[in-house]
């Protein structure tokens, strides 16, 4: 019975965790990351207004609620301006990253341990990799494990790169836990959903913080892929400004990458019972809705799955994740993948996951945290897969 079900049930896992600054700041001018904590409604509104007026601020973590931290990547001039405004209004702040360029350099020094997680596999899982290296890994996995894996192509990107994924079938027997998972589901894994943006981050150190796609819409480049889905598109927590790093695009599904993934899902929609979209950072395991603080009909079951994932994850290295709906736990964000997957593709168990950490490194997580982050995340995925399976 399990093997029959696994041909029907599937979980799609995608990774969309590139963050950046659309105006390409000169990072070598000692940008700093500043954490701010608005302690009342007046301070929150003031902080939102300050950020809105100073348009060249790179917002890592937006001002969403009272007593919710805000992280800003600031040029020297913006840092002086913001500090003066904060101190004048008695708003708490601290510097999280003193020198962003140094943090980027440290991340690119190949700090990770040379660790292979599969016997005979020489891929270095303890370091960050270029798009070419990731695509080569996909090819190598499909060749090495040709009886259980197949490559699928979703579409070509705006700049003509293939957007590839790896489907893992239900015949893997060497690890009991993995065998159980693959008896339950087929797995569709898309390592990089924004290939053009990801490739761009490797082209120059000053471009490391790029977040958006690379399409051209007006005077600035790119669209935030997780504001471009056709679900309450651009209603809240998104911007119509093409230069904003949360630009929703000129219309829903304007981005070929986002539309390609959506079309692929809709072709498989009767087969997909779980959807996980991984981003960074904040350590959240989140459920719909993103566009409103109102909770969906299935929230209780969705949140129970998220709770199971967080607990399983915590038991590995003690890392604590929070769980809840996107709008209530982090901020409102319309046009998100999790909202669309739940509402339009009818995938009941749809999640957006923000990976390590909570701000010490932010989007510049050191390479030596890749392996432990992967280990704990895998346990979270295992737990949520078991939870979903047991609901059927």
Automatic annotation (TrEMBL):
PROSITE patterns for this protein = PEPTIDASE_M14
Q: Which cofactor does it need?
A: Zn(2+)
Q: Name one GO molecular function term.
A: metal ion binding
The signal sequence is 1-23
Task: Locate the active site.
Answer: 354 (proton donor/acceptor)
User: Where does the protein end up?
Assistant: Secreted
What cellular component GO annotations does this protein have?
extracellular region
Task: Check the record and name the SUPFAM superfamilies matching this protein.
Answer: Protease propeptides/inhibitors, Zn-dependent exopeptidases
Main location group: secreted
Keyword Coiled coil (UniProt): no
Q: Which UniProt keywords apply?
A: Carboxypeptidase, Disulfide bond, Hydrolase, Metal-binding, Metalloprotease, Protease, Secreted, Signal, Zinc
Q: Which residues form a coiled coil?
A: none
Domain Peptidase M14 span(s) in chain numbering: 167-388
The record's Gene Ontology biological-process terms are: proteolysis
CDD domains found in the cross-reference section: M14_CP_A-B_like (cd03860)
Family assignment?
Belongs to the peptidase M14 family.
Q: What does this protein do?
A: Involved in the digestion of the blood meal.
Q: Quote the protein name from its UniProt record.
A: Peptidase M14 domain-containing protein
Specify the species. Answer: Sinanodonta woodiana
